[in-house]
Every structure is written in structure tokens, then in C-alpha cells.
Amino acid sequence: MPRSVNSVASRARRKAILKQTKGNYGRRKNVWTVAKNTWEKGLLYAFRDRRKKKQQFRALWIQRINAAARLEGLSYSVLMGLLNKQNIEINRKVLADLAVNHSEAFKAVVNKAKEAAK
């Protein structure tokens, strides 16, 4: 008996991947083998960068906290040490938001932390 090939499913699979590579440049969007490689590599980048994004945001929050803390006469590391000593549990995301959008609230947190130094 001859081998049966499900060409409908094969074509649908290829068509779905070509649809996902639609915005790419040159042969990366319409030549099957090149488009498939591009698509697979894109999935790897997406997986990696979902994790990398968290690292980049943490670095941004630390920079913002450090800049605001230096206006108050402290460095980032000293401020975080004082916060830990006072058992003030506030995460970097919220602290950075206070530093950027609510400077008075950030100053209050810094003053509370400075009480530990005295």
C-alpha cells in the first residue's frame, strides 16, 4: 500500500510559521527553511528575554533609588542597609516609584531609616 502524506496538515503547519515570520526582511519571511530557523530563534530570544526583562527592571529601580538617596545624602547601599536595620520591608519597585513620583513619601521613608543610624 502506498504511503499516505497528510499534505493539508503539513501545508497548514508551514503556513502558520510563515504567518508568524511575516514582518521579517528578505527571505526570512517567505523561504520555508530560512523562515523556520528565524521563527525558532525568535522563540529562544523571547524565552530568554522574558527573564532578562526582570533583571533590567531591577537595575533600573536600583538606579532610581540611588539617585534619589544621594539627594538625601545617602548612597543606595547605605540606605538599603538602614532600611534592613529598621526592619522596613519595602521592595525596590515600590521604593523606586516613591522616589520618582512621590518625593515627599520617599523622604519620609529615608528619615525613618536614618533614625536607625542615631
What does this entry look like structurally?
With 118 residues, the protein is mostly helical. It has one domain: Ribosomal protein L20, C-terminal domain (c-terminal domain of poly(a) binding protein), CATH 1.10.1900. It is built from 5 helices and no strands. The chain has helices at 7-20, 32-71, 76-85, 92-101, 103-114. Helix 3 crosses helix 5 (103-114) and helix 4 packs across helix 5. The chain is rod-shaped. The termini are far apart.
How would you summarize what this structure contains?
The protein has 118 residues and is an all-alpha fold. It contains 5 helices and no strands. It has one domain (7-114): Orthogonal Bundle (c-terminal domain of poly(a) binding protein).
Approximate strand percentage: under 5%
Give the biggest sheet.
Answer: none
Order of secondary-structure elements: HHHHH
Name given to the CATH homologous superfamily: Ribosomal protein L20, C-terminal domain
Instruction: Give me the Rg, rounded.
Output: 26 Å
Structural class: mainly alpha
Helix content: over 70%
- Could you please say which CATH topology applies here? c-terminal domain of poly(a) binding protein
The total count of strands amounts to: 0
From the 3D coordinates, which CATH architecture would you assign? Orthogonal Bundle
In CATH, what is the class?
A: Mainly Alpha
The coarse overall form would be rod-shaped
Distance between the termini: 90 Å
Would you identify the regions where 5 or more consecutive residues have pLDDT less than 50?
none
Supply the number of structural domains: 1
Number of helices: 5
Report the average pLDDT across residues: 94
